[in-house]
Amino acid sequence: MTSPYLPMLLTLTTSVPHTANWLYEVKYDGYRAILEWNGSRIILTSRNGHNLNDTFQFLSLSLTKLFKEANIPPCVLDGEVCVVKNMFFANFEALHTGERENLSFMGFDLLELNEDTFLSTPLQQRKMHLKQVINNLPPNKSIYYVDSYSEDAPLWKLITSNNGEGMICKKADSYYTPGKRSKEWLKLKNWKIAIVFLHAFDQSNGYFHVAVNRAGEIYKVGTFSHGLRSEERSVLIEVVKRNRASEKSGVMYVNPGIVLTLKYLDLYKEKLRHPRFDKFCFEKSWEECTWENIQSQWEK
Questions:
Q1: Tens digits of per-residue pLDDT, 240-289?
Q2: Which domains does the chain show, CATH number per domain?
Q3: CA 1 to CA 114: how far, in whole Å?
Q4: Phi, psi (5° rounding) for residue 18?
Q5: From the CB of residue 45, how many other CB atoms can be counted at a distance below 10 Å?
Q6: Global pTM?
Q7: CA-CA distance, 69 to 66, in Å (whole number)?
Q8: How many CB atoms within 10 Å of residue 279?
Q9: Which residues are CB-contacts of 55 (< 8 A; sequence separation ≥ 6)?
Q10: Phi and psi (nearest 5°) for 251?
């Protein structure tokens, strides 16, 4: 058995491909992992080739027990380790806040089975073998088969209505290329929108600080740098310099007034996760930027 593999990588896209022969899957928010079952124990490996068994000890032991009980032949799977709240949403924060006994491995590909290697087998056939392997396990919450959809719209509706991270688009006949980024595997993110006001600019790292009104106080919700065009960045820095109310340790602070929207994926410890610039909102006042508005997106 040739292991560990480095996982095949996805290419970010902003649009869904609609040409023939595409399959669509849920994108889960967790840790990408290669699962190797050698007949006696499970070995989980990160996307960088690091052993994850100590990090996810409870999960690796649970999977080992399951695979032994079902007498599963040696195999190598690709998937995501996460805390699944439903089949369309995985809670990234729960992965870091004491819910590791609720971890699951979401299996979406099969690389090896018995003595056979399936790297040059079309994806659709690999998933058939994967489904058989997982279906042979006793009922459990430690591993799930990630199904594919032939149409994107119904799946995207389920993902967005459950605040899922996004969708994966894969060519049905794609081969598995370990460690390589491919345009036959695409990822589409389900961005959420936060209305915030500019709070400060850090001259040391080039990041802008943003905040909202929370119970009458200025509450910092994150920092961002990505998404701005070079001319937008230059103008915004100049605006901060001209309107700074104070400066400390290289950070220039401004009074509330400049409103903008940010795209972000999730909340982590009550901060925006992976925020990036979306647009300026000159028509809105900073008083409209509230923590309650952000929280309301997660009350579905």
A1: 999 999 999 999 999 999 999 999 999 999 999 999 999 999 999 999 99
A2: 9-189 (3.30.470.30), 192-296 (2.40.50.140)
A3: 8
A4: -120, 10
A5: 21
A6: 0.88
A7: 5
A8: 12
A9: none
A10: -105, 120
